[in-house]
Structure formats: C-alpha cells, structure tokens
Amino acid sequence: PPGPAWTGMGRAGCCCRGAERLASPSLVRRFRPVLLLIIALLFLTLPVCVSSTGQCQVATPQCRIQKCTTDFVSLTSHLTPAVDGFHTEFCKALRAYSACTQRTAKSCRGNLVFHSAVLGISDLMSQRNCSRDGPTSSTHPEVHPEPCSYHSRTQHPGYLFCGLFGDPHLRTFKDSFQTCKVEGAWPLIDNDYLSVQVTNVPVVPGSSATATNKITIIFKPYEGCTDQRVYQAVTDNLPAAFDDGTVSNGAAGKVRALWISERTPGHHVELHAGYIGVTVIVRQLGRYLTLAVRIPEELAQAYDATQDLQLCLNGCPSGERIDQAGHLPLPLSPPALGLQLQQLRRPSYASQTQAYPYGTPQVFGVDGAKERCREKLEEPDIYFHSCVFDLLTTGDANFTVAAYSAQKDMESLHPHRDRWRIYPRGSATSTLNSDCQPIKRLTLLLLCALSVALMY
C-alpha cells in the first residue's frame, strides 16, 4: 500500500514555518514602497485589460501536477494484482507519471503537492522494484468516442456565437453588431449541418424597422445519429417539439444526439444538437421572437459557394443596414408611431386594445427610454443602446425585456468572455475604457517611483 508520502499527493500543504514573521506589520511598512514599485514594474509586463470588462488574462506557466496525477489514475484504475502483466503495466504507468512531473517541474517549484507526488513516485518505484529506465504507458490511451457526441469526437473545439433580437439587431460570428431592415425571409445560418432562417415583418407602419415573427431551424441528416429534423416557431406558437411531434431522436449509444428542452412554456425553448455541438435558444417576448446560437467554428465554415448569404457569417447586406458602420443614431419618435397611437385610442379600436395581450405602444422620449432600459440593463453597452433605439422606434416596452434576455443568452453561449461587451462607436464609455489602461499604469509607476525616492 502507498506510504505516508503518497497520501500527501492529493492535499494542498499549509503555510510554511516562519511565514508569519515575513508578514509582520513592521516589515510590510518598511518595504512597502519597494514592493509597490516591483508590483508596478510587473504590471507593465501584463497584457492590457479588455477595455469593456476589465478582465485580464495573464499568460503564466501553470503547474500541471494535477493533470499528471489524473493521467496516472486513469492508467492504473483498471489494474489489479490478479491480472497478468500487472507489475509491468504498473511500472510503465509510474515511469509515465515520473516523466510528467519532470516536464512540469519548473512551473511547480514550491508546490507542496508536486513535491509530495515526486516522493510518492519514488517510494512506489522502490516498493514495486520498478526500474527508472524502460517503456512508459501512453498518457493518451485509446479512447472510443461516442459517434453522436461532438465533444467526444473533438479534443478542443472552438465555438462561434450569433444572436438576433429587437428591430432586429444582429450579432455576427465575428462579433460585429448591426441593426438591419431585412424584411421578409432571410438565412442566418446555412451550412452542411444546420440551417436557420428568420422572417421579419414591419413593426410600425411607415418605418423601416422590422422584427422577427417566425424562425425555422433545420437539423440536417447525420448518419447514425439523426434523420432530418425541422423546428418552426411563430408568434404565439413556440412549440416544445419538432414538426413531426417528436422531442428528440431517441438515444444513440450512450448519449442523446438531438433534443428539445422547454424552459418556459410558450416563451423559452432550447434545442441541443449534441452530435454537432450546437445549442439554439428561442424566445418569444411580447409579440416577437429572439434567437441565440452557439456552433463549432469548423461546422460554421462547412458551406459551399451557393450558401454564402448567411447573416450570421457575413452580416446584413449594406443596403439593408440601418446603423452607419456600427453607429446606431437614436431616432426621434417617428410620425407613424404617433398615428398608430391615435388609431388605438379611437372607440373602434377600444375592444381590440383591451384584449391586446402585449400592451399598447407608448411614446418615449430619449430620457424616458433610457430610464426604462436602465431598469434591466445597467451597463451602457450596445444592448442598452439597442433597447433605447427600439423604444424610441416602436414604443413597445417589451423590447426592453428582449434586449435583456438577448444579453443573458449571449453570456450563456458566447465562448469568449473578453468579447461580451460591445460599446456604441464613438461613445464616451468606449473611448474611456480603451484609453484609460495605459494612463492608469503610468500613474501607478510614477507614484511608486516617487514613494521610493521619498525613502531616501
């Protein structure tokens, strides 16, 4: 059985003896200026924080002792002394474990778990009479992937995100944010595995703004996993099943290849295609629909020349853009909206208005629209700006919830947290966030240098 040193591999050590003296207040006060200068100098070597989130990622080598231990356990968990060749295979695994610790030794200096593992390996080699030299077990033993699980078939997939909501506002695979007219039926995604098409209708008579009232999703046949499945949602009909009435294609092997999950009946549905690693979120908010999609990058690129019209891939055609190269000017309340409100107030419309399930439109000024959007969206990013635009354009307060839900769906599906926040071009926030980091760093360095000078 493993000795005491072996048992320490899985536990992190406690503080080192004498560490409390190094943290004494007198020493901290004495060396604080020097420490601040060192911190500042190190800070200059770090990458600039992402301007919109303040999140920093430091490229430092990581101690991989946990990975070494996990590999060893996977190589030996099936071995028992009663099995022929146990001694040979166990020694191979130990040598592989030892080689792994040697490769990560530089980045594990001072790590008590690492040093405990090294001692444990040495003890076990002595107990089992294993030689230091000899063949090693493969740290990547043969694995039989599930054919209908994309994650099982693919080691390190990269993902893309696309979203559509509001008037409509489109976030492409390249994180380009656009506001488009695109009235009628338009393809968002069209590749060898998946097709997503939306239909947009005018929101306010006389305005170019539209919104989505129909979404059609086609999961194309994939041998051994699924036949073709079609999902279609329209306003007031957000089904929890495919067109053929099924909610999944059944189990293929040990995993489900394709299934639908109804989160909120009639308002929120999620479609999961495990065989291609795709997740789609469809919502109805007010009278219109929103869409969010995550798809592996390699599958999104699997299309031919006849499938190049994809809004998620290439954005809206220039003639269909409402924004101006990323700048979305806030509209005044359009005359058409005023006429619509006058019609809704007429007696002939009274019974319809009372029965209307989504609420009647309102006239928002800029300040009122911002105040309403701020109830859901605190960060003045493009989702907030889109919310304000939609309220000014339509007077429909449901677009506030649509923008909020679209932002939350993006955060749940977008693979890169450092790209979540997009700010309107030319806004004070985007300018401030992009310029402040070098100034902050220079200021910190000057303050630290001054504190050192004052010591002398």
Automatic annotation (TrEMBL):
Compartments, record wording: Cell membrane
One Pfam family, short name: RGM_C
A cellular component term (GO) from this record?
plasma membrane
Limits of the Repulsive guidance molecule N-terminal domain? 63-132
Q: What is its main location?
A: membrane
Which Gene Ontology BP terms does the record give? BMP signaling pathway; positive regulation of macromolecule metabolic process; regulation of primary metabolic process
Q: Which residues form the Repulsive guidance molecule C-terminal domain?
A: 159-415
Q: Which domain of life is it from?
A: Eukaryota
> Which UniProt keywords are given for this protein, alphabetically ordered?
Autocatalytic cleavage, Cell membrane, Disulfide bond, Glycoprotein, GPI-anchor, Lipoprotein, Membrane, Signal
Indicate yes or no for the key word Nuclease: no
- Provide a Gene Ontology MF annotation, just one: coreceptor activity
Any keyword Ribosomal protein?
no
What topology does the record note for this protein and the membrane? Lipid-anchor; GPI-anchor
InterPro entries the record matches = RGM, RGM_C, RGM_N
Span-the-membrane segments of this chain are: none
The family annotation for this protein states:
Belongs to the repulsive guidance molecule (RGM) family.
Q: What is this protein called?
A: Repulsive guidance molecule BMP co-receptor b
